[in-house]
Amino acid sequence: MSYTSISILKLSATLPQVRDITELLGYKKVKNAFKAPNQIASYYWFDEEDYRSWTGVELEVYKTRKGPIKIFTRSRVSRSYWDLLQQNRTLKLLKDLFGGHFESDAGKNRYWRPNGAAPSPLSSGCYLARWRFHNNLQRAELYLQHRNLGGDLAKDVPSGLPFIDELNPRLLSNNMLVPYLIAAWEEYFRATFTACLRYSRKRESALKQAKLGHVEFEKLIAGSLQAERLIAESFSFQRPSIIAKNFGYVDSKIDIAAILRKPYRGRKESLFDLIENIVNDRNQLVHTGEININLFDAKLRALFVDLTQAVDRAYQHIAKQSNFDPIYDY
Hints:
This protein is an alpha+beta fold. The chain is about 50% helix and about 10% strand.
C-alpha cells in the first residue's frame, strides 16, 4: 500500500522550471528501469538527518506534446512523519508556483494529516533498527518456506547415528542460517547503539573504547559514514555479554544483560545464555565447518522466536530508559 498524488500544472509551466523547483525541494534525480510512456524524469527524496526519513518520497514528471505537465508523488504506507510533510510540501509548492490543482488520496487539493506528533530522533533511529531486523528475519523465513529439500537423507528427525546426521542436507541448510541470523542480530544492536551514541550526553566512555584506524578516519573525512556509525563498527555486538558492556558506555541505565537474564517461558535457560550458545554454534561453523546436528526445523524456528523476543526486550528497555514509546508499525 502507498500514498499517491498527481499534480496537473497550468500550461504555462515549463520543464526547466519544474526541474529547478524539484531539486530545490531536495529531490535527487534517479534512473528508472521501468520508464513509462511520456515520463520525463524520476526523482527521490530521502532525509537521513536525525533519522527523519523511513521510506522517502518518489516523484515522477510526465509531459505529453501538447498537454500539461503532470507530477506524481508516492510514499509507502510505512512512511515517516517527515516523509509525509515532504509530500505535502511538494504538493503545496507546485500548486503555489505553477497553479493548476492536485489530487491525493485525501481528495482534490487536500493534504494528508500526520497521525500524532513527530517521534524524537532517538525514537526514530531505534525504530529503524528494529524494523530492519524484522525485515531481515522475514527474508530468512521466506527462505525456509520456499527451500525444497528432497531425498531420504534430508529428514527432519534424528537418525540415531551422528555420522548420518552430519550428512543431512537439512541440518547443513539450517546451520548455514545461523550466521545470517546472528548477523541480523548484530546489526540491530549496532544500529541501535549508533542512535543511542549519537544522542547521548555521556559519550566519553564509548569514545575512549573505540578503536579507529586510518581506514575509518578516511571514511570519516570523506563523509561516507556518520561518526557514530564508524565508532559503533569498532565494537562487537554478537554476544549479549559484550552488547551489555557496550551499551553501558553510553547510558549506565541501560542494562541489556539484566533484561535478557530474566525468566523466559519457564525455561531454565535464559535468553542471555541461549544466545551466547548460539554465537558459539555460529563461530564453530564459520571457523571449523562443524555443524550442530540437533538443529532440526522446530529448533531453528524456535530460534527465530527467541531472537525476536530478545530484541523486543532490549528495544522496550531502551525505550523506557530513554523516555520514548516503542513503534511497532512495520
